[in-house]
Amino acid sequence: MKKLLISILFILVGLFVVDRLGGEAMWWVNQHTHDVSGPKIKYLANDVHEDVVMMGTSRCNSHYVPSIISDSIGMSVYNGGIDASDNIYSHYIMLNHILDIHKPKVLCLEVQISDFSKQANPFKCITFFAPYMGKNEKADSVFKLAGKYWQYRISHLYRYNAKAISNIAGLVINRHAGGDNGYIPDPKPKKFPKVLLYFKTQNNIDSLKIEYLNRFISLCKQNKIKLVFTIAPAYRKIDSDYYDVLKIIAQKNNIPFLDYHTKGLFLDHPGYFHDPDHLWDQGSRIYSTIFASDFKRVLRNIDLLPKAVSDL
């Protein structure tokens, strides 16, 4: 019996050592990879310093060209859109890590239906941020809410489960080549979207997501960050009230809302789209010019435009 207990203890110690060493090795990979999301999360958590930070999912990443926007408004811009980050839970985690090191003047959040509607697995993509567990209490609270906190606290190696292969591949393949301050262009597709689908308004509201959207807004207010909601074009027809839940929240909190989807921008130009949800680089540059002009007016209205620019 004594030998059995010693053997079990030896195995447990061995597993602990392997887990911690493996965790350290994967942390190094995570900090040196050139995959799509790893370098962005690292930059946002450690180095971001720009006046304007764009946040959201791949729809943020694919649509906003910082150099075009920056040239128009006279302020530095970083595109912090994280591919497949999915919804407000991910954005709330990332915002807390950003606030540990930087308070941008303006934060543009690319919102979408998944930020307030019910999903089968709404916490799936927060695993992308698991390597940063233990660095911010508010960010960690989302893992507790998801019921994943102790798994990641106990096993450091498990924190890299979601992106391990992508991170390792990113040591060899640079997915950020040709990027523009966080913007990673989508290439011209072999075939442009042909079918213009119609999406009906969704009423399956997730009250917990609404709570975290309000927490996101409160964090910006507490840190004197001007928040702007944006919705980029998509090759889909929708009802005029499709985003009303988000628009009502924006109105209640005096948040500028720049909606280019309900307006149907580019619906007569399928050649600008990489797929129904994302513009490819040519379309993104045209859209960024349009957005920059409208965004400039928003900044002028809230007295955040640099004097040299506002005088133009």
Account of the 3D structure:
The chain has 312 residues and is an alpha/beta fold. The protein has twelve helices and nine strands. The strands form three sheets. A five-stranded parallel beta sheet has the order 2-1-3-5-7, with helices on both faces. A hairpin with a 2-residue loop joins strand 8 (273-275) and strand 9 (278-279). Helix 2 packs across helix 5 and helix 5 (88-99) packs antiparallel against helix 6 (137-146). It is globular.
Q: Quick recap of the structure?
A:
This protein has 312 residues and is α/β, with parallel strands linked by helices.
Strand content: 5-15%
Total beta strand runs = 9
Q: Measured on Cα atoms, how large is the radius of gyration?
A: 21 Å
Characterize the largest beta sheet: strand count, sense, and whether it forms a barrel.
5 strands, parallel
Structural class: alpha/beta
Secondary-structure element series: HHEHHEHEHHHEHEEHEEEHH
Q: Percent helix among the residues?
A: 40-55%
Structure keywords:
12 helices, globular, 312 residues, two-stranded parallel ribbon, five-stranded parallel sheet, 9 strands, alpha/beta
Layout of helices and strands, plus pairs?
Layout: H1 2-32, H2 38-46, E1 52-55, H3 58-61, H4 66-73, E2 77-79, H5 88-99, E3 106-110, H6 137-146, H7 149-154, H8 164-169, E4 197-199, H9 207-222, E5 226-231, E6 236-238, H10 244-252, E7 257-259, E8 273-275, E9 278-279, H11 281-301, H12 307-310
Parallel strand pairs: 1-2, 1-3, 3-5, 4-6, 5-7
Antiparallel strand pairs: 8-9
